[in-house]
Amino acid sequence: MIRQPIIAVMGHVDHGKTSLLDRIRNSTVAAKEAGGITQHIGASEIPIETINDICGPLLKATNMKITIPGLLFIDTPGHEAFTNLRVRGGSVADIAILVVDITKGFEPQTIEAVEILKQYKTPFIIAANKVDLLTGWHNTKSKSIVEALKQQNSYIASEIDSRIYELIGKLSEFDFNSELFNRVKDFQKELAIVPLSAKTGEGIAELLMVVTGLAQRYLEEKLKIEIKGPGKGSILEKKEIKGLGITIDVILYDGTLHINDTIAFATPDGIGTAKIKALLKPKSVSKNMDSGSGFNYVDFVSAASGVKISCTGLDDAIPGSPVMQVTDSNYSNEIKSEIGEVFKTDNTGIILKADTIGSIDAISKLLKSADENFKISKKEIGKVTKRDIMDAFAMYAKDPTSAVILAFNVGLENDAVDSSDTSGVKIIQSNIIYKLIDDYKLFVEQQQRSSSQKIEDRIVFPASIEVIACFRASHPLIIGISVMNGRIKPGYRLITDQGIPLGKIKGLQNEKTPLQIAKKGDQIALSIEGPTFGRQVKERQMLYVDVTEEDYKLLTKDFSHLINDDERKLLEQIREIKQKARE
C-alpha cells in the first residue's frame, strides 16, 4: 500500500515553525471532514479528503491522480527532530518545509537547516512566512495566497516579488535553483517558494497543494510499503511517563508493530531488545499527555504513524536510533547497518558528545562538510566525563586545536569540570548546532593565529647590513651600521659575505635607546660578542643574517607572505653564500 509522506518542519527560531504547524492543524480541524485530523505521538495525520477540502480546485488543477492517503506532519519542529528521524544515512522524513520569515530572510539557523537538508538530500519547500507583517497587508481570510494577493494593493505584490527574489539569490549561494511556486517549471530542478501567513492562514492551501503534488509525483515509489511486514521506525524521543515508566516515541515508516512483538534498538553499549507491553495513541488532540490516562491502548500500529511504545528494558535506548521488529537473528547487523558510519572516527581530532544519534550524525556531517574538514576522534551519547577530558588532553601533543570537546545539548559530570580546569582542555557547549560549530571555528582561528604568531616571532628573517663606523673594537664589538635590506633583531647571528660566522647580535641602539628591531634604511649602533674590528670586521664591509635551512623553508613555503620580493632575493643570496662556504 501507499503510506502518507512524512513531513518535517524546520527553520530559524521565531520564524514561525510551531505557528505553521498549529495553523495546519487548526485548518484541518475547521474543515470538519469525516476523517478530520488524527493526532499521533509526535505527528499529526491529515487525510487526503481534508486536504482536498482546504485546497479546493488547486489540487484538481494539477491533473494528478492522488493515491497517497494524506500527509503525516511531525509535530516537533526543528533540526533535532529531523536529524533523529534518520535511516540508512538519510532521513525518515520524506519532505521538509523550511520556514523563513519573509521580512527577515535567512538567519543562522536557516542556513544550518539548508546545510542539513543538503547533506541528507531531502526534498524541501520554502514557506515564506509572515506576509501579514508587510506594511499595508490586508487579511482576506482566504486560505489561498493567490486569492489574497488579488485583494492587495500593487505595492504588496511588488514587495513580495522583491523578497522572493532575495530568497532565490540566497538559495543560489547553496547551489539550489528556486522560484515562486507558480513559476516553477520543473519541481525536480527548482525549489518551490510559497508565500504565506501562519497567523492568518493565507497561503496554507498552496503549501498543502505543493507538498501533496510533490509527494504524489516524485515519491510514490518510495512511499510503497509492505503493510503486513515487520515494523521499522526511528526513535524521536525517550520519555518517562507516570504509570508507564520509560517509553519511546517512535515514528513508524514501514510495516506493522503488535503487542508482544520484540523490538531492537541501539544502546551506548551495542544493541538492546525489549518486548512491547503497550502501544499507545493519544485520546484526542488534547495536550493532556502528563500520564497514561491521556492515551488509548491499541493492539497494533501500521506505517506511517507515530506511536508511544512501553516496554521493560528501554532505559538505554538512544533517541535517534532505528527501531525494528525482531524477526530473525540478523537484527543486530541490521541496526548497525542502519546506523551506518555515524560513529566512525578519525585517528586524531576533537571529541563530540551529544544527546542523540541524530545530533551526532548532523554535527559530524557539518563538521566534515566545512572547508576545514575537521576531524573527530571520538563520538558518544551522554554527558562529558573525566575520561573524555583525558582523551582530549592526549590529542594536544598531536594538534592543540583537537584538544577540544564539543558538547551538544548535554551537561558535564562534576569530576569533568575539575579535570577541564586543570588540563586546559577546551569544552564548547551549546544547544544550537550552528553556534557550536561557529564557536569551534572561532577557537581554531584563534589557535592558528596564536601559533602562527609564535612561529613568526621565532623565525629569523634575512637582512644585509653595511659597516659604516666603529665605536668599540672588541669585548663586545660596537659598530655603526646601515640596514641595506630586510630586518635585524637582537639574537640574530651574523655571517660575512664569505659565509664565515661572526657571532650573535647582543643589542641594537639608536642614540642610546635600545631597539628590538631595525629595518631597511635604519642607521644604528650594533653590539656583538666575539669578533674584533680590523680583523674579522672592517669598515664598508657587508654582513648578512645567518638564516637556517629550517627558517629558509618556512619563509619560502607556509610563511612566504611575511617577506617581500627584495627579501626573497636576499634570502636566496644568503643561501648561496652559505653553500659556497660549505664547498
Main beta-sheet annotation: 8 strands, mixed
Q: Which CATH class of the largest domain is shown?
A: Alpha Beta
CATH superfamily of the largest domain: P-loop containing nucleotide triphosphate hydrolases
Number of domains: 4
Beta-strand content: 25-35%
Under the CATH scheme, the architecture of the largest domain is 3-Layer(aba) Sandwich
* SSE-based structural type: alpha+beta
The percent range for helix content is: 25-40%
Q: Taking Cα atoms only, what radius of gyration do you get, to the nearest Å? A: 34 Å
Instruction: Categorize the overall geometry.
Output: elongated
Number of strands: 31
DSSP helical segment count: 15
Overall mean confidence score, pLDDT = 90
- Extract low-pLDDT stretches: 285-292
Distance between the termini: 85 Å
- CATH fold call of the largest domain: Rossmann fold
